[in-house]
Design brief:
single chain; 63 residues; alpha+beta; 3-stranded antiparallel sheet; 32% strand
Length: 63
C-alpha cells in the first residue's frame, strides 16, 4: 500500500481532483468517496505502463 497526494475541490455540488504527481489527469464525481475511487483507478492506469507519454511532476535539486 502506498499513499499519494491529491488536490481536490467542490464546485456546484460536484467534486473535482487530480493526483499531485499527474496534474494533467483530472477526474470528477458526485461524492468525495467516489472521487477517491476514481483517483485510485487513474493512478493504476497511469502507473501500469499501458498509457504512452504520461506527464509527471518531479523535484529537482539545484545549487
Amino acid at each position: 500500500m502506498k499513499n499519494v497526494k491529491y488536490i481536490y475541490w467542490q464546485d456546484e455540488g460536484m467534486w473535482f481532483g487530480y493526483l499531485e504527481e499527474f496534474p494533467d489527469y483530472w477526474t470528477q464525481a458526485e461524492s468525495k468517496e467516489e472521487l477517491e475511487d476514481n483517483l485510485r483507478d487513474i493512478y493504476q492506469e497511469l502507473t501500469s505502463g499501458t498509457i504512452p507519454c504520461v506527464r509527471r511532476v518531479a523535484e529537482l535539486e539545484v545549487v
